[in-house]
Amino acid sequence: MPEQVRRALTDLVHDVPDYPEPGVVFKDITPLLADHDSFTAVVDALAASGRDADGAVVVDKVVGMEARGFILAAPVALALGAGFVPVRKAGKLPRETHAVSYSLEYGQATLEIHRDGVAPGERVLLVDDVLATGGTVAATRELVESCGGDVLGVAVLLELTFLPGRATIGDLPLRSLGQV
Fold first, then answer.
1. Is 105 tagged catalytic?
2. Which residues form a coiled coil (predicted)?
3. Which of 52, 146, 159, 178, CA to CA, is 20 to 30 A from 32?
4. Of 68, 88, 141, 166, which one is the catalytic site residue?
5. Cis peptide, bond prior to residue 79, ω within 30 of zero
6. Which tens digit of pLDDT belongs to each residue from 116-174?
């Protein structure tokens, strides 16, 4: 991992206790996003997950999960020359969707993807800010597969190792830039 990425995660990601509810420590990434050099380094590091050992792009689409996943996934898609597809909370997409409901670390949620967001056979990289319980990633994988896509891996800014995210996503290759 480049030193600039390590520094960005250490210096520019701030803990916010008891947000959005008591007992949760929220990882505020907005200072990292506001620093151009750090943001660029993080996007480049996440985009490496969509390349093979020779640097060739191996994905057709990058899927970002609402909401902070959008912020990271869209520039990763641009860096890879791939399309970006948002996975949104229920009721936010204007056309026909596939939907999946799942549990997250502090509640329940339903995610949706446009039915034509990923074409059958397209290779997909999932990008999000934090891997916690793994429910969001597992639900997103299910959505991509319902479209006929093939999820090649997941790239996240941070992995919360005290939660079962890695176990929940099973054999799906995971690249986390930092672990807490």
1. yes
2. none
3. 52
4. 68
5. no
6. 999 999 999 999 999 998 999 999 999 999 999 999 999 999 999 999 999 999 999 99
- Rounded Cα distance between 140 and 101, Å, is 10
Residue 115 annotated in active site: no
Among candidate residues 66, 65, 61, 93, the one with its CA nearest the CA of residue 78: 61
CA dist., res. 95 & res. 109, Å (int): 19
Q: CATH fold of 3-179, please?
A: Rossmann fold (3.40.50)
Q: What is d(CA 4, CA 11) in angstroms, rounded to the nearest whole number?
A: 10
Band of pLDDT at residue 103, cut at 50, 70 and 90: confident
Q: Give me the residues paired with residue 126 across strands.
A: 63, 154
Q: How far is CA 165 from CA 90, 113, 153, 156, in A?
A: 22, 21, 14, 11
DSSP 8-state code for residue 51: B
Least Cα distance to 132 among 108, 173, 104 occurs for 104
Single out the catalytic residue among 6, 66, 105, 123. 105
Phi and psi at 109, nearest 5°, equal -155, 160
CA 44, 50, 56, 57 torsion: positive or negative?
A: negative
Tokens for 64? 């970002």
